[in-house]
User: Which sequence fits this backbone?
């Protein structure tokens, strides 16, 4: 998917987003997994979009986020897996998995987080032990999105007999759906129509061909690379949620009157709408900048972290402001404001906590890494 050839695809994705928006209130309330929409996204090429121009991918994720945030983690978890296979797998692994992944015929999720930690991915208890020409995996993961519907899972584990220390002892493996079991589905504040699970895989034997890249100890940088693409997706989706909240707030203030005058004519209300608008526009520009830089290859942790923090802060600000502008009805479930706020809260921790990412940005900038001219 390139920017030049993207217009027709984006038109179809936007059409789907507009259709989903007319159903989202009922669908979100039901909490049911959106089988039909997943199939339509598959036909539109959404699940392979990250393998093309990331600016186009970001626009697609923005539209999906604008429609219904429950769809975004399904695509994002798979897209991160596509990125790993495309950029870090062996030729044989790419020949086997990349085609079905790009077409969305087989969907993957990420098994990274463990009960004992969140953003500290290097501190893992899950292990991989050599067994002849294969491996035996013992895994305990939590907060795993799409774990009960995905066909495969990329899992990060520590090599049990490795002499390496810290993150250098970590490797990525691809396992199949019948090799892990969901121990529980976690209740959540938002994105209720896609499952988030605790999973285990105990004494699971996999072949040597399931080690991504074929060389042990490379799992951590492989994951960090993919998570930068995940941050672009989350940032773009946050822009979409913020746009949806803004539009709904404008509709609401145009409908309401206060003290004998249209609420839309109130100077303070207009100032609040202006603040939402400029934050969202700035966030969208930063998302596109980070996607453009990531297109060139290599690590772009500062740029993607900046896009994620700015866009997700804009989404939370937009959701809160829209709820306020909605008046008393903004707190009810009759409108979309409450859903926007529930969904926006996900962004504070998803793909790295904002406070942690801001610390990373500050450290890199003080050290002049990357070139300061990107700002």
Assistant:
């Amino acid at each position: 998917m390139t920017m030049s050839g993207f217009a027709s695809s984006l038109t179809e994705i936007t059409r789907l987003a507009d259709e989903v928006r007319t159903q989202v209130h009922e669908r979100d309330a039901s909490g049911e997994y959106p089988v039909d929409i997943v199939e339509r996204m598959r036909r539109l090429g959404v699940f392979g979009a990250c393998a093309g121009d990331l600016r186009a991918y970001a626009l697609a994720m923005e539209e999906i986020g604008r429609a219904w945030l429950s769809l975004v983690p399904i695509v994002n978890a798979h897209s991160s897996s596509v990125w790993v296979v495309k950029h870090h797998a062996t030729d044989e692994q790419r020949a086997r998995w990349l085609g079905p992944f790009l077409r969305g015929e087989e969907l993957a999720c990420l098994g990274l987080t463990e009960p004992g930690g969140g953003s500290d991915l290097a501190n893992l208890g899950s292990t991989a032990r050599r067994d002849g020409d294969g491996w035996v995996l013992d895994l305990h993961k939590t907060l795993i999105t799409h774990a009960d519907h995905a066909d495969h899972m990329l899992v990060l584990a520590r090599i049990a007999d490795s002499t390496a220390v810290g993150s250098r002892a970590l490797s990525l493996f691809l396992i199949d759906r019948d090799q892990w079991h969901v121990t529980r589905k976690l209740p959540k504040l938002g994105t209720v129509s896609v499952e988030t699970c605790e999973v285990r895989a105990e004494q699971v034997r996999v072949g040597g061909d399931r080690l991504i890249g074929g060389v042990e100890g490379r799992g951590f940088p492989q994951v960090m690379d993919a998570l930068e693409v995940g941050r672009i997706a989350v940032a773009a989706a946050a822009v979409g949620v913020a746009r949806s909240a803004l539009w709904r707030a404008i509709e609401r203030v145009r409908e309401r009157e206060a003290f004998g005058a249209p609420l839309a004519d109130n100077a303070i209300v207009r100032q609040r709408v202006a603040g939402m608008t400029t934050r969202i526009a700035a966030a969208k520009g930063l998302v596109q900048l980070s996607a453009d830089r990531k297109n060139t290859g290599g690590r772009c942790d500062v740029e993607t972290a900046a896009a994620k923090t700015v866009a997700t802060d804009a989404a939370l600000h937009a959701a809160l402001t829209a709820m306020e502008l909605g008046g008393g009805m903004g707190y009810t479930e009759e409108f979309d404001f409450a859903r926007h706020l529930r969904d926006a809260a996900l962004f504070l921790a998803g793909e790295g906590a904002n406070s942690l990412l801001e610390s990373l940005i500050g450290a890199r900038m003080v050290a002049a890494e990357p070139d300061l001219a990107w700002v």
